[in-house]
Design goal:
The chain has about 290 residues and is of the alpha+beta class. The strands form two sheets. A six-stranded antiparallel beta sheet has the order 5-4-3-8-7-6, with helices on both faces. Helix 2 packs across helix 4, helix 6 runs antiparallel to helix 10 and helix 7 packs across helix 9. The longest helix has 25 residues. The termini are far apart.
């Protein structure tokens, strides 16, 4: 009896394996392709609505995602049933629904800045050939969270957990550049502006001028202001509210980072910060 049951199981397994190995018919493949296409179109509609703060008309949705009005309406009504989109019957406008917020909130709860940033930091280190750091602001100081060391004999070190003043570090000035004048003044009032090297900016006016240049460039510069012989460039990482979530920097010795190369590294770190912000779910504030 046991032998016959075992044979039956082996026969069933062979049949299922044969069925799984059979090529998909043309009709089944077409249906699968159609389902994937519909899913991509639906996601495009949700992404389109996410860019419109006050809602979008059916005609505009169809035009922006490149669909016929009938197809766009069919997908919208399907998404509405699952509450991923919402229809305002008075204004005749479509907008993102509450379920999209619920799904997005799950990402926000589980995300980690270090985990999101690390692949971009690794790529930036390979591209620049210099050490890359990640930092956040805490109690008026920049706290290093992670570092990807370069392969050069001479390289900068910043132990995770170490802290540096905001006013004389590239990560600190990047973070300050994304704050309001009132926030910057409050921090400086609490921490002061200690002179660390002969190049440290020690007056609020000098710092304000440097922060204005930082905003214009899109990245900050530390030109031996925190350590003699060390140059750095950093850019701010934004959260979903357009607030500074952290900063990423490239650091190296003055011997390698000339004025010309500093500008190149600044552009690199600006691009990396933008990529981290996007993967973190953040966005730069308007302007």
């Amino acid at each position: 009896m046991a032998k016959s049951m075992a044979q039956a199981r082996r026969t069933a397994i062979r049949k299922s394996s044969v069925a799984a190995s059979k090529p998909v018919s043309g009709a089944a493949a077409a249906e699968r392709t159609s389902q994937v296409q519909s899913l991509l179109r639906a996601l495009s509609i949700v992404n389109c609505l996410a860019e419109a703060d006050e809602g979008t008309s059916l005609t505009d949705v169809a035009q922006q995602v490149g669909l016929s009005i009938s197809t766009a309406h069919r997908l919208l009504t399907t998404l509405e049933k699952e509450r991923y989109v919402h229809f305002d019957s008075e204004r005749k406008l479509w907008s993102v629904g509450v379920q999209a917020f619920v799904a997005g909130s799950a990402f926000i709860r589980s995300r980690s800045l270090v985990a999101v940033a690390r692949p971009h930091m690794r790529a930036l280190m390979e591209q620049s050939g210099e050490t890359v750091n990640l930092a956040i602001e805490d109690e008026g100081q920049a706290i290093y969270l992670a570092q990807i060391e370069c392969r050069q004999m001479m390289r900068a070190f910043a132990t995770p957990g170490a802290h540096v003043p905001l006013h004389c570090s590239s990560v600190g000035k990047a973070l300050l550049s994304a704050m309001s004048d009132a926030q910057v003044a409050k921090i400086l009032h609490r921490t002061g502006m200690v002179r660390v090297t002969s190049k440290t900016l020690c007056t609020p006016m000098a710092l304000r001028e440097e922060l204005a240049r930082t905003r214009e460039r899109g990245y900050s510069i530390d030109d031996e202001e925190h350590a003699i012989g060390l140059r750095c460039a950093a850019a701010v990482i934004y959260n979903e509210f357009g607030e500074p979530a952290g900063a990423v920097s490239v650091s190296g010795p003055l011997a390698r980072i000339t004025d010309e190369r500093l500008a190149v590294l600044g552009a690199m770190v600006k691009t990396a910060a933008g990529a981290i912000s996007r993967d973190y779910g953040g966005r730069a504030p308007p302007g």
